[in-house]
Design brief:
With 309 residues, the chain is mostly helical. Helix content is 77%, strand content 4%. It has a single domain, classed as Rhodopsin 7-helix transmembrane proteins (Rhopdopsin 7-helix transmembrane proteins, Up-down Bundle). Keywords: Cell membrane, Disulfide bond, G-protein coupled receptor, Glycoprotein, Membrane, Olfaction, Receptor, Sensory transduction, Transducer, Transmembrane, Transmembrane helix.
């Protein structure tokens, strides 16, 4: 069957399986996870916004990161919850491309946010006396806007290239929509898509990763040659960032691995978990990690919670 992906055709998810009455248990688990994500991220966003002592560059970038966690999880969880309860796992092409847009912009913005945060830590540790001059409020706003605008621009072009493709099938071997699955179904020429992928991938992945590696090399150099106080500052502020980066990279690695290679030998439940890891675990991991490890945030949260009791 040949269909135009931009028309009101339906795509079928083959990764779902009949779980019987267990689907209600899965629904409750996923709903609880989504509620936890919303609660944790909204709490930290509110804490940062209402406390003037947290109106510093590092916390403004954290706020942008938490907003992205809400955005990415909202692009997945409502759709996932409906699919768990449904007996027919289909989605219309427009809704599928909307989810592709949300998922891909989330991933792109996440890496860009982490890169900007590493640059901020580099300035704070390597140039402490010039930090507030180099990281002015105007520059902070510009970096946040650039992070989001570049992510939306790159993925908008990606969607505009994929939407007109003629598809030779309508079965996606996943539990949500992603661009690579659509391109694999295409029976029309995908040369332009491939060229754009070769150009955009270095911009989206290699540039942020290169910036992160460079900043951490400089931070390590300062730590080895600096004072004990400098090392303590670097460890306290860089540890949660590194943990977040490694967690996100771990999830993306398995998602890319699963998309590019045949993983039929892996149990279906494990495949589903790994494909959802960077979209479900990262939005929980970040607020918990930063909320518990950064003393200013944790103390403010404790005061807020104690005041409500």
């Amino acid at each position: 069957m040949t269909v135009n992906s931009s028309q009101s055709s339906f795509l079928v998810f083959s990764a779902y399986f009949d779980s019987g009455h267990l689907k209600y248990l899965f629904f409750v688990i996923v709903m609880s996870l989504y509620f936890l994500i919303i609660t944790a991220n909204v709490l930290l966003i509110v804490v940062i916004c209402v406390n003037r002592s947290l109106h510093e560059p590092m916390y403004m970038f954290l706020c942008s990161l938490f907003v992205n966690e809400l955005y990415g999880s909202t692009g997945l969880f409502p759709f996932l919850l409906l699919q768990i309860l449904s007996d027919v796992h289909t989605v219309s092409a427009p809704l599928c491309f909307l989810q592709i847009f949300c998922v891909h912009t989330y991933g792109t913005a996440e890496l860009a946010n982490l890169a900007v945060m590493s640059y901020d830590r580099y300035l704070a540790i390597c140039f402490p006396l010039q930090y507030h001059t180099r990281m002015s409020p105007c520059k902070v706003s510009m970096l946040i806007v650039l992070t989001w605008f570049s992510s939306f621009l790159v993925i908008t072009v990606l969607i505009s290239l994929s939407a007109p493709l003629q598809l030779c099938g309508n079965i996606i071997n996943k539990v949500y929509c992603d661009n690579y699955s659509i391109v694999k179904l295409a029976c029309s020429d995908t040369t332009v898509n491939n060229i754009y992928g070769l150009i955009s991938s270095p911009l989206v992945i290699l540039c942020p990763v290169s910036l992160i590696l460079y900043t951490y090399m400089r931070i390590l150099k300062i730590c080895f040659s600096g004072s004990k106080q400098t090392r303590q500052k670097a460890v306290s502020t860089c540890t949660p960032h590194l943990a977040s980066l490694l967690n996100f990279s771990f999830g993306c690695f398995f998602e890319i691995l699963q998309s590019r290679f045949n993983m039929n030998s892996v149990p279906s439940m494990l495949r589903i978990f790994l494909s959802l890891y960077f979209l479900t675990c990262q939005p929980v991991f970040n607020p918990l990690m930063y909320g518990l490890t950064l003393s200013k945030i944790s103390l403010t949260c404790k005061k807020l919670l104690c005041a409500d009791m």
